[in-house]
Amino acid sequence: MNRRGFLLASAGAAVRPALALAKPRIGLVSSGHARLARPLSPEHPLDYEAVREIVRLAIQYGAPRAGSLDAKIKPGAWVVVKPNIVFLRPHPSYRIGDITDMRVTMAVVEYVARYTKAARITIAEGGSYRGLRDKLEDNRVFQNDQPTDATNFDWGTEEFPGFGGSVGAMAAGLAAHFPDTKFDYVDLAYDAVRDASGRFRRVVVPTAGNGVGAFGARPDYFVSNTITRCDFLISVPVMKVHNQCGVTSCLKNYVGTAPREAYQSPGNFNNMTMHNQHSVDGRLDHFITDLASFHPPDYCVVDGIRGLQYQEHRNDQPEQTVRSNLVLAGEDPVATDALAARLLGFNPWDIEYLHLAAKREMGTNDLSRVEIVGDEPDKLARRWGKPSNWHGRCNREWLVADDPAADLRTWTRITSPGDTLERAGKRWAAAVRIMAGGRCKGFLWIGVSGRVTVRLNGEAVMTEANTTRYRTGQFRVPVEMHSGENLLVCSMEALARPAKLSVLVTNHRDDGDTLEGIRYLFGR
Amino acid sequence: MTRRELLAMSAAALSARAANSKFKESITAAPTYDHTPQIGIVRSDLANGMEEDGTPFQGLRERRPVTARLTAEQVAAMVHKAIGFGGLRNGGLHTIVRADDWVVILTGRDTDPRVTGAVIAYLKRNRLGARLTLLGHAGASGAEFVSLPSADRVELPVPLHSTRSHGIPKIVQNCDRLITSASLETLAVGNYAGMAEKPVEDERLGDLFEYHRADYAIVSGTGLRRNIVFAGPNATATDTVAGAATGRSATYLKTMKRRGFGETDPDAVWVRGNTLGEAKAVFANREARP
Asked: What's the whole-model pTM score?
């Protein structure tokens, strides 16, 4: 090694720990942000210039560890911008707030074109509508009697004020402004990785640096070429409530990267087959994380201008579309999603796929370890309508014993992989230590198959029996935690089948979110 | 409203949306969930007929005048027929209730016990529900009984409206599925007022409904020899159709609509079995009206 090489290596070694220790940053900018040239109210419909400035400022605030987004994107890079365009407007399940605001997508693309030396910028998405070259007739969208797809579907001027036309026209317009950059659209629905014979090829989820592999029911997925091959991937989702996961944002956006041409079933141009093949306990969280593992987001810009509450698609409920007029941007997708969850009124702890992504070292779901620059989240957070069957993350850290009277120090430590603890045996007991930051009131949600008697700090708070369908949160009772450690002991008796148990302590609103300020402790 | 009219209206609505954006837009068959409630209407004299899409249906085997005194079997036949009509695109009560569910049937003081018995028989015959509980004022064979006035109660915040809380019978929250079976006087949503310890105004009725929105609703006039049964998966829509038939709409429908509990426009509901006009005819005589 020469002297220059040695010095560079030394400098690099010195900088690396500092970068590793630096908190991830998230830029959060609302339309009323004081530093905008033209602050606008949270109800303002906005125009493209306003959205562009919000996006620009959010990206600058949410600078990656490299210092800036332009520093992180290498000259000549192929940058992919992945919005959510799951439906086009005629789809019966579409409602404003369902997909990423076209103006946000355009502003991100324009930012990359203007401030970086990317050689190619691709807008990529795979929605539930057939492409023009597809010969099948179902799930085909028509506009003015002409078949159309995401590239040339004309959104008009009303849906996204200040944006007119199609994604294809957007790319063409930007190409005219930035002639040195190539702009294109890739329909990920038709971009499956294939083998030499042309057949769809499954790819196994790569193992993370810490040895963590796939979470889904099967580890090999159909994936798209564009996502796996591009140099730099920017996830640009719309943040909204999701019927099962709680929230959908940067990581859930990856469901649209799975090629529908490989996962479709007759008459269904969607990813339901993927759901069936890869879900665990009927949940999406595991395959969301797996899909993101093929190319975790290099950067995220979240559209928080309008989103949907109660569930992710149209549900015919009044006031389902919620306007917030904000954008958040950051390098850490887990932290960015955690902040999105907070803004939607959820407890980020309750979002299962954030735990899984954190296990794969994609980022942190602990917002105390994140630097939020721009607007204050507490001022922008609102309580969006939750799905009717929503429940947060149940306790996973158990102490179990066959004899509830046995000394707690002799109980066995178990980490349950999911919300439910299931054990063989006619009688057994499970305990959880709950640390509360202060005296707090909430509700205890118990799901049980069999009979359970629950004691909190020695006092019996519930006795219930259930021989019908097992359901998290079936039985609820108000409880009060005292400051410090609380001990919850559940004495179980199997009735018709092996006993099952889930425990969740929710907040005073009883809305299914984990009570703020508590922690389930692991061990004795 | 007939199915054809409904479909035409849906297309018109889509066109209106499209017109708003100055585009004519459509999509070919795509998987989606049709939320349009289908409300079954069955008079005791329902004859063989044909649905608007041309599908024939069988009437009641033993037809009786709408003012006749009915046997329990005749009432059960009406109820079962109405349940067969009332559902969603992907199925009716048999797809709403699972075999391992705990089903609570909420009844009012004036619910015809023969209707309740018919609902229990339907569930048992089709092996729907592992546990059936009757929550009301009188028991019936085939289901355990919990007296509404003396049921164990729990104070819980109103879902989505956490600044308010009410005491409700515990089993309303504990059960997996709730069927409300009501008279034409009380109506399906009105049954929920029985859960409160004192009279409730419309907003509070909406609160009580929010704790566990009815998974299925049955409204009948059989107890007072106005032999008609309404059944469907949406209590608000069922009450809407029943109200349109009798000419007496419940005051709470506006609140239910605002809170997103269901359709209150009878023209936006798909009526099956007897038509709405045939249902109205039962109440042509003022004395028959609730």
From this structure: 0.89
